[in-house]
């Protein structure tokens, strides 16, 4: 198959911000593709060669990509770099320079999908002394044979920043439209949620339609999208919503991991599917040796503990583990304990369809417990006094609050969804402050006065799960210290866009736009209606969206969350409405 057909489709996707239009472009394009090609194309549309959880990324440094563009287009390095500094996207630079060169070029072999995948695989696997040179050489070869549009996407793929705007949800819609019908959409989504592998889902659908999807099951090695909790503003409301009786667990303030334990190996995934195995060798070894069965997938919260007293330490301590190079000493100086709270698979059996009480029972019978592996503290709660006492004991143990969990027959593990089967209630709500928001950075304003020459404020957004758009909710300029302000360009500039991405909604006009990637925790005084902010626009009042008043950065960068895990539009709307009840 010719790569130019694929690149042209990417260009059509990029030129529209309408999710419906993207869906129909993709659904038309998917028709008649070979299943294996469809799988590759789905990964490429996300700027990858594999599913998100694959441990190796293409991620070539921009400087290397620029060198390849320079050789392939016959332009001096300085000119290419100058253009890149101005535009900020290697793809656009390549497109512009290759399009000029093409008028003179005589010899080139049209690129096929097979060649692109094989060359990208070469780049991905290149290791050792000459690896940088070899990568540049392979990329130069591809660019030599590419059209301007192909060059645009090849450079974006190797840089790991695709930006065509087709979210996972859009691809799911397109797959359903092409290979099944609307009614089958939830079944397809569930298959994606338990495998996190859209390429696999596409391939199965193209091979066997919905029959191919029904075979997709939970298994060790394929991370499962995590289940998430709703929030309510008071403990009595939590209990009432649960029907007067529920389980409550401590809400630990650590790092959520999903552990895949199989044979002799253990892999830990973060909630954004990063591989955390090397950060917690002690936890991996403990889980492996304490498992009574052969294979399991469990979830738990990794919490740092005081090496002398065993007391739980704040979240920041466990994140140190991610930055340590000398893991041996970190394991001793920052001991970690995992508090397991769910089991999703055990020895050939999918546990996600069992109700919570059964899963909890299986979990408690499946592991030996010790200093490294524990169960989350749990109690059955039947009245407000018990709820209050359980909450107080969680706070005394240095937890964030409690997680209430439904005991009903329908309390299955809902992969990838946020619902009222789990409800969180945190100390922050108790102290009558608003909850914090996890917001994606979508833009920046240059500073003035003391902040001149640096970013002085950031434009922050929530995520609209239905449309795949990011909608602004505040301009954030408070809570930054000097070190953080200095670190902002390194953190953000790699996501700079030359123009406002089509999937961003805001009435403000920042100096710089970013592709949403970085998520920051933000506290605010309250939620208010604003014409400039576009979250839940028109829901509470015509011509107004919801904005955060007096936003303040809490100091916590949520690097455990990707941009699409930010607070959602519906959550912010619910929180806005809750202000008018007595809690938040
Ligand atoms: P938050 O920012 O409040 O941690 P979140 O968006 O990360 O929220 P939620 O589903 O809203 O995720 O809250 C549940 C989170 O709480 C989980 O992702 C997990 O990391 C953590 N957690 C701590 N203890 C438990 C527990 N006993 N059961 C489930 N989750 C727990």
Indicate the topology.
Layout: H1 3-14, H2 19-30, H3 35-45, H4 62-73, H5 77-87, H6 90-102, H7 113-125, H8 131-144, H9 148-159, H10 168-179, H11 185-193, H12 198-214, E1 228-231, H13 235-241, E2 246-251, E3 255-262, E4 265-269, H14 281-290, E5 295-304, H15 315-323, H16 327-333, E6 336-346, E7 349-350, H17 356-366, E8 373-375, E9 378-381, H18 384-396, E10 401-405, E11 418-426, H19 427-430, E12 437-446, E13 455-464, E14 469-476, H20 482-492, E15 496-497, E16 504-505, E17 512-514, E18 519-523, E19 526-530, E20 545-549, E21 552-557, H21 569-578
Bound molecules: adenosine-5'-triphosphate.
Describe it:
The chain is an alpha+beta fold. It has 21 helices and 21 strands. The strands form four sheets. Strands 12, 13, 14, 15, 16, 17, 18 and 21 form an eight-stranded mixed sheet that branches. Strands 3, 4, 5, 6, 7 and 8 form a six-stranded mixed sheet that branches. α4 (62-73) packs across α8 (131-144) and α6 (90-102) runs antiparallel to α9. The longest helix has 17 residues, at 198-214. The protein is globular, with a radius of gyration of 25 Å. It binds adenosine-5'-triphosphate. Adenosine-5'-triphosphate binds at residues 228-229, 249-252, 256, 271, 301, 341, 376, 403, 424. The site of adenosine-5'-triphosphate (ATP) has 13 residues, from β1 and β2.
